[in-house]
Amino acid sequence: MYNFDELITRRGTNSLKWDSAGHADVLPMWVADMDFRTAPVLIEALRRRVEHGIFGYTQVPPTYYEAVAAWFARRHGWNLQPEWIMYTSGVVPALSAIIKALTVPGDKVIAQTPVYNCFFSSIRNNGCELLANPLRRENDTYRMDFDDLERKAADPRAKLLLLCNPHNPAGRVWTREELTRLNDICLRHGVRVVADEIHCELVFSGHTYTPFASVSTECLNNSITCVSPSKAFNIAGLQIASIISSDADIRARIERAININEVCDVNPFGVIATEAAYSAEGEEWLLQLIAYLEENDRAFHAFCAEHLPQFPLTRLEGTYLEWMDCTALHLSSEKMEHVLLEKAQLWLNAGTMYGSEGEGYMRWNIACPRSRMLEGLERFAEFLQK
Ligand SMILES: Cc1ncc(COP(=O)(O)O)c(C=O)c1O
């Protein structure tokens, strides 16, 4: 059994999450990385590499592509060919290169808001325009608005849709039916789907992650997928991601954009960590992590039901990001972020970071030891009492 309860000090390690808070008392529950040590199988593999002591330029070996393909086939039922895979230094660099490759400035890119903030910057930085297809809130969950999507996709300048599956911050793990319907609409209007599936390993029981490209041949042919073990194995700092497309012409265009953006080199640690993550021991650790996160989610919801009933939560089907409706406070999300940081030493993400649909919401990262998560909730509750 792995011990996810261990409180590990991250302050003083140049951690973005912990060390960019000015105040030493701040409890950071914002940016999406975890306060858990990664799987021992990764640490061992990295240790062996460190001990070699030479860290020159890296080539990505065939075993990398085979490990990615075998993992997705075994764990997620997607039989992809190793030659469909390209690598780059992260999912955001991947999204940016794909947009550059498949649009011209002035084109429109659809995103289902509220959504991961770097979708906005990667669209904007490539000279494209965001076409929002806002998700519809229904009780404690979100649904896709297919009627609105039909209208947005019909815009002749709409070229791509950035899909977030599972969705950050809406907590949805999209079903096969939803993905099929989305692709039917996109296909009808010549919109290609870019599936950001970085959160795909973090799915709770009762829900199944369906790789978009595995839904049908139509979905495969109309999509490009981005994945990385970085979220699930807590190795975002090692900077590696895979881009998967079955279309050789599309791959050549993306490869060219990766070169233009000069993000064609990865480091030795990312490659080694990916291979170790996508192993049987990596999988065993991951299963225990998911069980722990699921228990955190349960404890989070139980605490809120008892002490914070005026702040409705979104049901989490996957990821470790709670999405809380704080409209009862009558403050803007940005103001809440500042006030919580100043008065409660609690650092959450303002919902508006994910688009205007997030106004009044706050995002909590619960990928930490349960005692630390509960301390965050206590700070929030005490702040309200004052
Ligand atoms: C949906 C999504 N995509 C991409 C990323 C970041 O990817 P990377 O660190 O590989 O650039 C995140 C990080 O939170 C995310 O939530």
Please, could you describe this protein's structure?
With 386 residues, the chain is an alpha/beta fold. It folds into two domains: 16-40 and 281-385, Aspartate Aminotransferase, domain 1 (Alpha-Beta Complex); 54-279, Type I PLP-dependent aspartate aminotransferase-like (Major domain) (Aspartate Aminotransferase, domain 2, 3-Layer(aba) Sandwich), CATH 3.40.640.10. Helix content is 41%, strand content 14%. The protein has 13 helices and 14 strands. It has helices spanning 16-19, 40-52, 62-76, 91-102, 118-125, 146-153, 176-188, 217-221, 248-260, 268-277, 280-307, 333-344, 370-385, and strands at residues 27-28, 85-88, 108-111, 129-132, 136-138, 141-143, 158-164, 192-196, 223-227, 241-244, 321-325, 346-347, 349-350, 361-365. The strands form four sheets. Strands 2-10-9-8-7-3-4 form a seven-stranded mixed β-sheet, with helices on both faces. Strand 8, helix 8 and strand 9 form a beta-alpha-beta unit. Helix 4 (91-102) runs parallel beside helix 5 (118-125), helix 6 (146-153) packs parallel to helix 7 (176-188) and helix 11 (280-307) packs parallel to helix 13. The longest helix is centred in the last third of the chain and has 28 residues, at 280-307. It is globular. It starts with 15 loop residues before the first helix and ends with a helix. The mean pLDDT is 98. Bound molecules: pyridoxal-5'-phosphate (PLP). The site of pyridoxal-5'-phosphate has 13 residues, from helix 4.
